[in-house]
Design goal:
Distance between the termini: 36 Å
CATH class: Alpha Beta
Bound molecules: nicotinamide-adenine-dinucleotide
Structural class: alpha/beta
Strand content: 5-15%
Number of helices: 8
Shape: globular
Strand order of the largest sheet: 3-2-1-4-5-6-7
CATH topology: Rossmann fold
Length: about 250
């Protein structure tokens, strides 16, 4: 389905981004991986997917510009890289605020502004943001993350309107809790912020949000991303697709 399409998936050395990269590669896309991680493990992923890799630090706009220049035009851009920090607002470290806004929001602006001219030239493009249920609703102690994800939803709607007549769609996918390192790593801080045990955080904070009482699987998020890349999805733009076990229905 995606033969001859070139796809950059940011934050694709782990979790949801890796699942999306695998799904796109399985459909024949030429995938460019990005993200942090062990060099040998990343080399093995490149081998597995027939992919290339660019290790740009997406908190650095100049590094993003170099990456976009080095990799050349892309047809599919998945703005997926992200991080979390959990703390009450009065204790929220300003450097964590800046890092989350840079990675979860501004990086998508920088990749998108540089990818769009090539998409316009070819009259086809797919821009997908891994947003979050937190693009639609809030949880305490996640001020930077919720702010960045709400902003991603607004950014996506804006570019969808700008690009609507160019064969380029822009959409958000908004997962609930997906079992990845990003979720696992926030458990200790959530235990501290709420005075809870690990089990209480898992059941009373995380899965309490999801009526299905199950974590979303990265592969299920990837299947939705793949659909948004299909020709059948050419009329879907500016949308924000929830895949959250019913969380935001409440
Ligand atoms: P993850 O921690 O497994 O993966 C994050 C990826 O981002 C990794 O590849 C990591 O190397 C990369 N990354 C981190 N800092 C980077 C930097 N400075 N420069 C370049 N790459 C960097 O997390 P995940 O759960 O797969 O999250 C992926 C996206 O999905 C994020 O935007 C996250 O907010 C979103 N999301 C996750 C969940 C969830 O429950 N896991 C839910 C909703 C949304």
């Amino acid at each position: 389905m995606l033969k001859e399409k070139r796809a950059l998936v940011t934050g694709s050395t782990s979790g949801i981004g890796l699942a999306i990269a695998r799904a796109l590669a399985a459909e024949g896309a030429q995938v460019i991986l990005n993200g942090l991680g062990d060099a040998d493990a990343i080399a093995a992923l490149c081998e597995e997917l027939g992919a290339s890799y660019n290790g740009a630090n997406l908190m650095d706009p100049q590094a993003i510009a170099r990456m976009m220049d080095e990799i050349g035009p892309v047809d599919i851009l998945v703005n997926n890289a992200g991080m979390q920090h959990v703390a009450p607002i009065e204790d929220f470290p300003p450097d964590k605020w800046d890092a989350i806004i840079a990675l979860n929001l501004s990086a998508a602006f920088h990749t998108t502004r540089l990818a769009v001219p090539g998409m316009k030239a070819r009259g086809w493009g797919r821009i997908i943001a891994t947003a979050s249920a937190h693009s639609l609703t809030a949880s305490p102690f996640k001020s930077a993350y919720v702010a960045a994800k709400h902003a991603m939803a607004g950014f996506t709607k804006t570019i969808a309107l700008e690009l609507a007549t160019h064969g380029i769609t822009a959409n958000c996918i908004s997962p609930g809790y997906v079992w990845t390192p990003l979720v696992e790593n926030q458990i200790p801080d959530t235990m501290a912020a709420r005075g809870m045990t690990r089990e209480q955080v898992m059941n009373d904070v995380l899965l309490a949000k999801q009526p299905t009482k199950e974590f979303i699987q990265p592969e299920d998020v990837a299947a939705l991303a793949l659909f948004l890349c299909s020709d059948a999805a050419r009329g879907i733009t500016g949308a924000n697709y929830s895949i959250d076990g019913g969380w935001t229905a409440e």
